Amino acid sequence: MSNAKNIIDNLKNQGANPDKSQINLINELCNLNIRRKFPFYKLLFNDGPSGIYIWGDVGRGKTLVTKAYLDELNRDDIKSFHYIDLMSFIHDELNINSGIKNPLLKVSKSLTKNISIIFIDEFQVEDVADAMIIGDLLKLISKQGTKIILTSNAHPNDLYKDGLQRQKFLASIQIFLKDINIQKLEGGVDYRTRNIIKFDNSNSKETISNKKIFTFIKDNFGIDQQKSNQIIINDRKFGCKLISNNILWIEFIDFFKEPTASKDYIYISEKFDWIFISNFEEIDDDSIDIIRRFISFIDITYRNNSKIKFFFNGIDIENIYTGSKIDNLWVRCSSRLSEMETKEYLMNNQLKSKNKN
């Protein structure tokens, strides 16, 4: 059995001081009865629930707490997947085994061989092909005696809302859910917002490297296999540094020199939970289109309470635009940039953004 105190201490060492709800979740995880796998495991042992389904608001630390628990177990019989990566793997395996009887059973046995725990992060059924598979797959995995830990933003009853053949999906998933512990991680401080506030270089002359930004995003949000360096907005492609897990990272010069417009910024503000912007340079009137687009972007994201982290890298906000033709517009924009950098703005918009999620 895992030691809850060790997990709590390790989280504190990472700068994440667990709250009451997170501590309750840690205790529930530690109460899972994890045994080594061997044949006929499920027939010989009544080992309690088949796993835990953890749900709650974005940024509550579902993944952070679960990974801390798995790290504390320190076992070699654990598999971890982001949900998107798991389903991509399953579809590939089903195609490979399409000629055999009951290929999903073979895939489930392959997944669970010598594995005691499978962790599926960001469970979010949205595709009809996935919906027709996942309930049966989870049942097969649990029958093998492998514990399943899932994290999701949605209660199980809200999964795959308005999806095609949803009743079939619900019938399948409910059988699995009867033997699993459903835990809500109650609302509280978004630890990622807290970490982003700490990761603040606005008053520093230090240049934050792309490697450091990437590592920060990976540590706090994870990087899925579907990551991309292109964003499709209103049927047009634009370059970016990264898209992954509802996170967008763009570069000031490269993105705003493209012919983007208000409708594109509205899409971004509604689509992404967090936006990171780096590679700022001082702009004069020779590049006024870049600053005009950026001002429009800030107007829209400010109005929509978007959460943005800027990496100004030693450039004072008021000096990003050094021209004079649109000085009156820049004064308002620079004021908003200063506000959007503050702890108060980010913490307030953490709460507002929950309605969007």
Describe what this molecule looks like in 3D.
The chain is α/β, with parallel strands linked by helices and 357 residues long. The longest helix has 16 residues, at 128-143. The chain folds into two domains: 4-185, Rossmann fold, CATH 3.40.50; 191-355, no CATH class. Helix 7 links the parallel strand 3 and strand 4. Helices cover 46% and strands 15% of the residues.
Amount of helix: 40-55%
CATH topology assignment of the largest domain: Rossmann fold
CATH superfamily of the largest domain: P-loop containing nucleotide triphosphate hydrolases
Topology order in helix (H) and strand (E) letters: HHHEHEHHEHEHEHHEEEHHEHEHH
Please give the oligomerization state of what you see: single chain
- Mind telling me the CATH class of the largest domain? Alpha Beta
Radius of gyration: 23 Å
Number of domains: 2
Mean pLDDT: 86
Spatially, the strands of the biggest sheet line up as 2-3-4-1-5
Tell how many strands the DSSP assignment holds.
10
* Shape-level CATH architecture of the largest domain: 3-Layer(aba) Sandwich
DSSP helix count?
Answer: 15
Enumerate the spans where pLDDT stays under 50 for 5 or more consecutive residues. none
Structural class: alpha/beta
Spatial separation of the terminal alpha carbons: 34 Å
Shape: globular
Q: Describe the biggest sheet?
A: 5 strands, parallel
